[in-house]
Design goal:
Layout (H helix, E strand, L loop, with lengths): L2 E2 L4 E4 L1 H8 L3 H9 L7 E3 L2 E5 H15 L4 H13 L4 H5 L14 E3 L1 H7 L6 H10 L2 E4 L2 E4 L2 H12 L4 H36 L4 H32 L12
Antiparallel strand pairs: 1-2, 2-4, 3-4, 5-7, 6-7
Helix pairs in contact: 1-3, 4-7, 7-9, 9-10
Length: 246
């Protein structure tokens, strides 16, 4: 076993890696031929594998135990790799004020994500999640942008809504929310932010102070809209005295 003193990365020859992963050298060669593993580092005729390869092998073993085929695993890994992006880019924009709010990200192993959405983690759903920016790949882990969105998606799937339908709705909601955000930003830019800059106030702090007002408006309007829709679906008349959400 060789060790890079600079980064303290453990490296293994093929036989050592296979032993660590609990598989045969023949199986390891097969996985490499199927491109389930990234290429090893070459030093002359010697191939060196590291802990990233070991983690990948353990992920493959865990997914196989959960009923995934090697072909399916290859598609899942390809979907993640094609959607690889810098996690810092996913979680925040360069130069944004530290006071601006951010969602709480969640780090998961691929097999943990497969368990979280049992039977729903398909290459198509992964591709959609990556496209929406919900997921990113960081080394051997998957990073979900938002704990809240992850939990809501999980609950909806548990209630019988297919994950593909949840993601489709998320894309539609994203479009409406972007339009709502533009409305509030335009309002603030026209009536608040210019004066705040003249007073020497931090723009990020001003937005953070006013953001809960926008959230309250959206929450109230959404609640009334849901009430109207549900009453229409159930054929119920509006409650007396509730003129605010007719």
């Amino acid at each position: 076993m060789a060790t890079s003193e600079a980064d303290e990365v453990r490296e293994y020859r093929m036989a050592e890696l296979a032993e660590k992963a609990g598989i045969t050298v023949r199986t390891l060669r097969f996985y490499r031929e199927r491109k389930l593993l990234p290429p090893p580092r070459r030093e002359g005729r010697i191939a060196w594998y590291d802990d990233h390869h070991l983690a990948r092998l353990r992920t493959i073993a865990a997914l196989l135990e959960r009923g995934h085929t090697l072909g399916g695993i290859a598609e899942l890994l390809a979907a993640f790799e094609s959607g690889r992006r810098d996690v810092g880019e996913l979680l925040g924009l360069p130069g944004t004020a530290a006071s601006w709010p951010a969602e709480t990200p969640v780090r998961l192993r691929p097999e943990a994500l497969a368990d979280y959405f049992q039977g729903e983690v398909t290459p198509e759903n992964l591709s959609t999640s990556l496209d929406l920016g919900y997921l990113a790949v960081d080394g051997d882990e998957i990073v979900h942008l938002s704990r809240r969105l992850l939990d809501v998606s999980h609950t909806l799937v548990e209630q019988g809504v297919p994950l593909a339908a949840v993601l489709g709705a998320a894309r539609e909601v994203r479009e409406h929310v972007d339009a709502i955000a533009e409305t509030f930003v335009t309002l603030l830019r026209a009536h608040v932010l210019a004066d705040a800059v003249e007073r020497g106030e931090d723009v990020g702090e001003t937005v953070e102070r006013l953001r809960p007002l926008a959230t309250s408006v959206v929450d109230a309007e959404l609640t009334m809209a849901m009430n109207r829709r549900m009453r229409a679906e159930l054929g119920e008349a509006p409650p007396r005295g509730h003129s605010g959400d007719q």
